[in-house]
């Protein structure tokens, strides 16, 4: 059971990091378009 909780936490952390990376890439693309 603890293993499942750990997997869920890792999955949440990975999804959060991926979303942050997408936001960063999106901002970079917008900045490149503006400049």
Plain-language structure description:
The chain crosses the membrane at residues 13-31. Keywords: Membrane, Transmembrane, Transmembrane helix. With 35 residues, the protein is mainly alpha-helical. It has one domain (1-35). 94% of the residues lie in helices and 0% in strands. It contains one helix and no strands. The chain starts with a helix and ends with a helix. The model has no long low-confidence stretch (mean pLDDT 89).
Count every helix, treating DSSP H or I runs of 4 or more residues as helices: 1
* Form type: rod-shaped
Q: Approximately how much beta-strand content do the residues carry?
A: under 5%
Q: Structural class of the secondary structure composition?
A: mainly alpha
Q: Round the Cα radius of gyration to an integer and report it.
A: 15 Å
Keywords: Membrane, Transmembrane, Transmembrane helix
SSE layout:
Layout: H1 2-34
Q: Characteristics of this structure?
A:
single chain; 35 residues; mainly alpha; 1 helix; 94% helix; transmembrane helix; transmembrane
In short:
Keywords: Membrane, Transmembrane, Transmembrane helix. The chain has one helix at about 1-35. With about 35 residues, the protein is mostly helical.
């Amino acid at each position: 059971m603890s293993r499942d909780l750990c997997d869920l936490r890792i999955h949440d952390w990975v999804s959060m990091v991926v979303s942050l990376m997408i936001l960063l890439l999106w901002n970079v693309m917008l900045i490149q378009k503006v400049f």
